[in-house]
Amino acid sequence: MNEHIRQILLTLQELLGAHKELIQHANEKTQAIRAENVEAVSLITSREKKSVQRIVELEQTRLLQVGRFTVEQGLRNMRSLKMEKLIQMVYHAEQKLELQHMWRQLSAAIKELQDVNTFNQQLVRMNLDYLQFTQDLLLGAPEDEVTYHRAVQGMNVQRASRYNLKT
């Protein structure tokens, strides 16, 4: 087996493990968001940052290994070569199948991670919307404030909210 391909496969396995760890963190975060446990969300987020840093390092390693493989094949250094192209460049059927298998697994893990993260974002948005709704119920709707305060009539006044969102 080509040493560079073997190294790429090992790095892809490590990337897959790191992504699965990130999926586990995301699932834990889902439970923490549902339980409205801010401390747990914060702790999980710090663990996620470490996992993401590890993924960035592994991806840089993978790119370096792909560059070495392309140089060995007589091509110019193509460090940004996509995995699909790399798989096409491999001539040995066994290596090609292993690369395809690892790439499919990694792609599936990335898709699952994206789905869980999207769900978590929706949960957070729903919680913030609920808090804003509750605040409006307790303090009155923001548009009512202008009509009930003579001192600020005619001015465009917005009530400060702790839950302002960037959309």
Summarize the structure.
With 167 residues, the chain is mainly α. Helices cover 77% and strands 0% of the residues. α1 (3-34) packs antiparallel against α2.
Distance between the termini: 50 Å
User: In percent, how much strand structure appears in the residues?
Assistant: under 5%
Highest-level CATH class: Mainly Alpha
Number of domains: 1
Describe the largest sheet: none
Number of DSSP helical runs: 5
C-alpha geometry:
elongated
Poorly predicted spans: none
* Sheet/helix structural class: mainly alpha
- What's the architecture, going by CATH? Up-down Bundle
What does this structure look like?
The longest helix is centred in the C-terminal third of the chain and has 47 residues. The chain has 5 helices and no strands. It has one domain: Methane Monooxygenase Hydroxylase, Chain G, domain 1 (Up-down Bundle), CATH 1.20.58. The protein has 167 residues and is an all-alpha fold. Helix 1 runs antiparallel to helix 2, helix 1 packs parallel to helix 4 and helix 3 runs antiparallel to helix 4.
What keyword list fits this structure?
single chain, 167 residues, mainly alpha, Methane Monooxygenase Hydroxylase, Chain G, domain 1
Could you outline the blueprint of secondary structure elements for this entry?
Layout: H1 3-34, H2 38-72, H3 83-89, H4 93-139, H5 142-148
Protein name: Flagellar protein FlgN
Keywords: Bacterial flagellum biogenesis
Organism: Paenibacillus glycanilyticus
